[in-house]
Design a protein that fits this description.
The complex is a heterodimer of chains A (171) and B (81). By secondary structure, chain A is mostly helical. Chain A is built from five helices and two strands, in the order ββααααα. Chain A has one domain. Chain B has one domain: 434 Repressor (Amino-terminal Domain) (Orthogonal Bundle). In chain B, α2 crosses α3. The chains are: A mainly alpha (171), B mainly alpha (81).
Chain lengths: 171, 81
């Protein structure tokens, strides 16, 4: 991993990582953010070492997203029209469409989950490790928004990394 | 869409990077164009044709280009007395 100028017209400096590393990083960061959210949602605070481990998942997720955001894929994913060429603009727009679909699906699934859980006679929040908590606290909503923010933020560069064939500029 | 960008680029002795700089695109875009993974806009097609010193229809076609070896063979046969 090294800092070098990108091949876009802006010639900005970005972290140069291989597409394979970027793909692994994207799965790790997005996966660990969602894992953190669900584990924190279900786990009780009794086990401190477990809660600490779960907290580290969040650090991994946020850190991974930030690293991904600093790579060469940032310029293409969030570049202005005049900063990237027509093929890159086309890829950027497709990546953002995928990210939009992701957000819409998260909203739909959240809505359906809340409706299904609300329709059932679930016990009130007991803090038990299993079972859907009946009370969605402010903390849960905040965690949900953190996950949604960072995963949506990291998704366009991640998608571009998955589409990158990793070919050389020379030839 | 089919193209002969790689052929003309090699003929002119240009690297992908040099051609990319000449037509103001990312060098990776030249690779995408040569493989037929991306169809250029009319503007980019015209710029490529200008830089490679060819007509647009010599560079791009909707149908596959005939094999160069077949074309050369046919030319050689017609020239044989």
């Amino acid at each position: 991993m090294m800092l070098r100028k990108t091949t876009t017209k802006t010639n900005r400096y970005a972290l140069a990582i291989s597409p394979r590393v970027a793909r692994v990083l994207s799965v790790l960061s997005i996966g660990s953010l969602w894992a953190w959210f669900f584990l924190k949602f279900y786990l009780t605070a009794e086990s401190t070492w477990l809660m600490r481990a779960v907290g580290e998942l969040a650090l991994l997720g946020v850190g991974g997203s930030m690293i991904l955001f600093a790579t060469q894929y940032l310029n293409q994913a969030y570049g202005e029209d005049h900063e990237i060429d027509e093929r890159e603009r086309s890829a950027r727009d497709r990546a953002h469409r995928v990210a939009l679909n992701y957000v819409l699906w998260v909203f739909v699934l959240t809505f359906v989950t809340l409706e299904v859980a609300g329709a059932r006679d679930v016990p009130k929040a007991t803090g038990s490790a299993i079972g859907f908590p009946a009370v969605i606290s402010k903390g849960v909503v905040e965690n949900f928004l953190v996950v949604l923010f960072f995963t949506t933020f990291a998704l366009p560069p991640a998608i571009l990394a998955w589409w990158d064939r990793g070919e050389s500029d020379e030839g | 869409m089919h193209n002969r960008i790689a052929l003309f680029r090699a003929e002119r002795g240009l690297s992908r990077k040099a051609l990319a700089e000449a037509v103001d695109v990312n060098p990776q875009t030249i690779g995408f164009l040569e493989r037929g993974d991306y169809s250029p806009s009319v503007e980019l097609a015209l710029r490529l044709a200008q830089v490679l010193g060819a007509r647009v229809e010599m560079l791009f076609a909707l149908d596959p280009f005939p094999s160069l070896a077949d074309q050369l063979g046919a030319t050689a046969e017609s020239e044989t007395p």
